[in-house]
Amino acid sequence: MTTTFDDAADDVLAVRKRIRRERWLSRINRVSGTLDVFGLGWLAPLAKMAAGDSPKAQGRALWQQLVMPLIGILAFLALWATFAPMVQTSLGAIPGPVAVWGQAVNLYEDHLAEREKADAFHERQKVRNDKLAAAGKTDRIKWRDYTGKPTYLDQILTSLKTVLLGFVIATVIAVPLGVLSGLSKGFAGAVNPLIQIFKPVSPLAWLPIVTMVVSAVYLDPTDTLPKSLIVSAVTVTLCSLWPTLINTALGVASIDKDLMNVGRVLQLPTTRTLTKLILPSALPLIFTGLRLSLGVGWMVLIAAEMLAQNPGLGKFVWDEFQNGSSDSLARIIVAVLTIGIIGFLLDRLMYALQAAFTYQANR
């Protein structure tokens, strides 16, 4: 009898343990999509293994999602470190990973040193103005901005601000035109030749025209939006709006006709048809276009900043190339890696927004 009771208790405990494991696996499966969006999908197999799932199956998933990418990165670093010193340039040998990392650290330390100088400048200015105020000489109080050189991190922020401005302008133009193109075959036929003509145009061709137009129209530049930044942003706009326009038109044109007929039967007004039927159905392709446009804009920005001499990563690369010091090549490679990493993060950000606002991305 005692043995029977013990066996029953063990069975109950086993069932409870299995239920808990299944609940944990269900929770992990729910968040695995979110982890994939942010490039952290390899955490799901680790969590499933910890919850008691099949180590063999999750080990294969972990190998595919984490170990193989790490092997690829390590192999790239090994090849880079091996063959880079063999290539001699006018600035010396191609720097390896260690030298490039050293320059990345130096750029960050330069940023901290420049921030300390700025803080010291503002502190001295505050002390001086406080003394003038105490002496009743308020008319002599002046506040000036620190005019030190922009640091590497400052230039990254400038590039991000420029590409964001150009991307927003491109989105505001491309989405309405894409919707009209998708709804009207006549409008699409009128716009399509212009798309085919202007879509392949290089930013290097747009830049002189944009520079002259902005110089003629933008007569009172501000410190927040200098003329060089506007030139770069408009160039980004002209080169990046086409993927959004094309994908928006395709998404609107491919809406289920039965869905549109339901809207007509219900006699929905145009605005509600647009916001309740057209845009939600076309949203996945719109976001695909936005992701492509942001990627194109980020690539275009570097060339635009080089020629427009707008402070940013493009100008940083050009200045280091012109500088020709022994550290310049390593700093250029730092900028190249920075551009690539930021481009990846921007794409992940757009993918996260797509997953949050579209049904297809969440399936």
Please give the CATH class of the largest domain. Mainly Alpha
* Residue share in β-strands: under 5%
Q: What is the CATH fold-level name of the largest domain?
A: MetI-like fold
Averaged pLDDT, please? 82
Poorly predicted runs are none
What topology, given as strand order, has the largest sheet?
1-2
Give the overall shape: globular
Number of strands: 2
User: How many independent structural domains?
Assistant: 2
- How many H/I helical runs? 13
Characterization of this structure:
By secondary structure, the chain is mainly alpha-helical. The protein folds into two domains: 84 residues, no CATH class; 211 residues, MetI-like (MetI-like fold), CATH 1.10.3720.10. Helix content is 80%, strand content 1%. The chain has 13 helices and two strands, in the order H-H-H-E-E-H-H-H-H-H-H-H-H-H-H. It has a two-stranded antiparallel sheet. Helix 1 runs antiparallel to helix 2, helix 2 runs antiparallel to helix 3 and helix 4 crosses helix 12. The longest helix is centred in the C-terminal third of the chain and has 39 residues. The radius of gyration is 28 Å and the shape is globular. The two termini are 52 Å apart.
How is the secondary structure organized here?
Elements: H1 2-37, H2 43-50, H3 55-83, E1 88-89, E2 92-93, H4 97-134, H5 152-183, H6 185-198, H7 203-217, H8 227-253, H9 257-265, H10 270-308, H11 313-323, H12 328-357, H13 359-362
Antiparallel strand pairs: 1-2
Helix pairs in contact: 1-2, 2-3, 4-12, 5-6, 5-8, 5-10, 7-8, 7-10, 8-10, 10-11, 10-12, 11-12
